[in-house]
Amino acid sequence: MGKNANERGSRRRARIEQRRAEGIAQAIARNIRVSPLKARRVVDLIRGKDLAEALAILTFTPSLAAEPIKKVVESAAANAEDPNQMGLDPGRLYVKVCYVDCGFAFKRMHPTTQGRARVIKRRTSHITVQVAERPRVRMARAGGSK
After folding, report:
1. Of 4, 38, 42, 132, which one has the fewest beta carbons inside 10 Å?
2. How far is residue 128 CA from its own chain's centroid?
3. What is the pLDDT of residues 82-132, one digit of tens each?
């Protein structure tokens, strides 16, 4: 393994430790066979929602992209609840960050007129979800300062 690979591994470990210190659990699904534009439409529905509400939205969203996104959210929640990893309270979890990046595209040729060919791209997605605990809200005392 070269010098750059060792540096890359140490930077990755540092990012993981930083997320663990901040109380953020993450899950990533790579090369999912759904277009990033279609997946982003679904991801926008759950960003910032409580975990139970996000899973309910994904269950009843009539999109093919909802199923793999739901699996990633469940995986991130399981990572957060695992006492060996994070040990966060499952009742206070919410979707802190979620986004979809482009993966590679399968290229297929489609014959058209006059012997030409068109390229059809079958796009893939990388889905990233981070969950964290909601901060506790401090209640103000009744009859506080005026």
Report:
1. 4
2. 3
3. 888 788 888 999 999 999 999 999 999 999 999 999 999 999 999 999 999
DSSP run (H or E) holding 97: strand 93-111
* Site of tokens 């290229």: 107
Which tokens in the block code for residue 11? Answer: 């930077």
In angstroms, the CA 98 to CA 63 distance is 17
> How far is Cα 9 from Cα 139, in angstroms, rounded to an integer?
44
99 contacts 39 by C-beta, under 8 angstroms = no
Q: Which of 96, 41, 95, 30 is nearest to 64 (CA)?
A: 41
Mind listing the domains of the chain with CATH numbers?
A: 23-133 (3.90.470.10)
What's the token pair of residue 43? 């991801």
Tell me if 100 sits within 8 A of 36, measured CB to CB: yes
